[in-house]
Amino acid sequence: MSETPNPQRGAPTTDRDAFGEYERDLRKAERRVAGEIDPGARAVVVAVAVLLAMVSMVLPHTGSATGLEVLTFAPDAAAERVTIVSKIFVYLLTIFGIVVSMLALLTRRWLLAWIALCGCAIACVAGMLAWWSRNTPGVGGVEPPSGVGIGLILAWISVFVLTFHWSRVVWSRSTYHLAIEAERRRQAAEQDAYTSALYRKNPDQP
């Protein structure tokens, strides 16, 4: 006597395949967003802040010394008695506020955005110290010949704007990534519950 085929026998396998395909799709989406950012409208604000940082480099940071002259240790910067904190600030502004921020904006890589955020945050503190150094007597009571220039003010505002918006971009990416991970854990729990229910219903089925 021939055995009557059971149309329900293939159903569990089909459901398991559907669960597996759904999990693979989630993993692909997670890998895709793991290293990417989506700044959205903030990209325009970041681009403007980077542009202002570049403009500040050609404006006087103190006296007649521009940001580029501070960066290159030009004679005008030495004549203005530019302190080490001002040089550190200009270097941080150039590296993180301009170069790394531009790369992060062009490549949309999360790692570069995170590096830009950390560097700009440090630059905020360095900018405050640079401002303070232009209004504070040095060793022996020698006062700086000039105060804070428009270039230093513009550069400091730029790194504050970059720090704020990079932090928002990095945080929004992290929130989206955590949501995908939570969805994948929920899907895995549902699959385990479904498998356990099938086993309790048919304990002899392999």
Automatic annotation (TrEMBL):
Q: Which parts of the chain span the membrane according to its record?
A: 40-59, 88-106, 111-132, 144-164
**Keyword entries, A-Z:** Membrane, Transmembrane, Transmembrane helix
- This protein's record includes keyword Transmembrane helix: yes
Q: Domain of life, per the record?
A: Bacteria
This protein's record includes keyword Transmembrane helix: yes
Name of the protein this chain belongs to: Transmembrane protein
Organism source for this protein? Answer: Gordonia jinghuaiqii
What is the phylogenetic placement of the source species in the record?
Bacteria, Bacillati, Actinomycetota, Actinomycetes, Mycobacteriales
